[in-house]
Amino acid sequence: MSKNEIPELAKNVVDVVRDLLADLRPKLVNAALTGRRAENENLRHKGDFLSDYDLLMHDRYKERLSEFMPSFIYASEESDPQVVGSEDEPTLCVLVDPLDTSELAVRALLGYTHIMVYSLPLKRPILSVVGDIFHTVQLYVAAHYEDGTDRAFAVTADDKWHLLESPSQAPLNQALVTNYLMRPEERFLPLAEQYQFMAALGAEGADGKRKGRIGQGHGSVCLAHVAAGFTDATIEIQKGFAAWDFLPGHFILHAAGGVAIDLDGESIGLDYGFNSLPEISKAMDVKRMFIAAGTRALADEIRATLTR
């Protein structure tokens, strides 16, 4: 596979993400090595880390996308949704988390960027790109094609494109399940108190071995990892993920053949309710709790162990 086999809009967005990450990467490494992390007060999301680099990426995305997208609704984590361009009612919405896990990115540990393009007329996403700043697998891409299909890819630093179509088939006691468990009281302790889930994950297999594992996940990349088969499932059962953390990765997982359900067991569809600027603004406040897995069977197995 190659970049030439994806739709034109996807090619342009992939180029933007690559360029921005190539520019950002040495800045973050320098921040880590010098200890100058450029932290700002976060007025929009109290308690969350915000750096100069988040704001830089917010501005750069808007500038670069405007070069080939005449008009769109720009829904970034760092500002209220706004119309960019001359159209009063654009048909495309661009959802962006400019720099996810920025408190780790400025330590040169982990860092990601999320972008999704949503078609208001189609009522579904048509493109997602999740960029990984510090790893060899640098991009996870999903695109909607004219024939009505969706396809997902993992792209390495040497520009090799790998079609994602075989998420994990593992049962729970052999699964690597990730969770955003970084905050001690808000996230880690409530997860640790899910005793039935922990017992099922840690149960012996037929060979007598305990293969289930808990891993740390972050935003959309944790769903992309499930799409690629790198992990088996990811769960968010505490506060919920905001739109810019969940939706880009959700489309990638969908395109790869994985599943996402809510905690009531309902499948999460692709119509995100982005029908107008006011509705998009409202959607930015929605927090989603979910189970995402390679198979519906694993998602249901996890759900059956959770207490709420």
Order of helices and strands: HEEHEEEHEEEEEEHHEHEHEHEH
Major sheet summary line: 8 strands, mixed
Average pLDDT figure: 94
Shape: globular
Termini Cα gap: 43 Å
Low-confidence stretches: none
* DSSP strand tally: 15
User: Assembly type of the shown chains?
Assistant: single chain
The spatial strand order of the largest sheet comes to 4-3-5-6-7-8-9-10
What structural class do helix, strand and pairing data support? alpha+beta
- Give the percentage of residues in beta strands: 25-35%
Alpha-carbon Rg, integer: 19 Å
Count of helical regions: 9
Helix content: 25-40%
Question: What does the model show?
Answer:
It is a single chain. This protein is an alpha+beta fold and 308 residues long. 33% of the residues lie in helices and 28% in strands. The chain is built from 9 helices and 15 strands. Helix 6 runs parallel beside helix 7 (243-256). The mean pLDDT is 94.
Topology diagram in text:
Elements: H1 8-34, E1 39-40, E2 50-51, H2 52-65, E3 71-76, E4 82-85, E5 92-100, H3 102-105, E6 112-119, E7 124-132, E8 137-144, E9 150-156, E10 161-164, E11 176-179, H4 184-192, H5 195-201, E12 213-216, H6 219-228, E13 233-241, H7 243-256, E14 259-261, H8 277-283, E15 288-293, H9 296-305
Parallel strand pairs: 3-5, 11-12, 11-13
Antiparallel strand pairs: 1-2, 3-4, 5-6, 6-7, 7-8, 8-9, 9-10, 13-15, 14-15
Helix pairs in contact: 1-2, 6-7
Q: What brief labels describe this structure?
A:
28% strand, 9 helices, 5-stranded mixed sheet, 8-stranded mixed sheet, 308 residues, alpha+beta
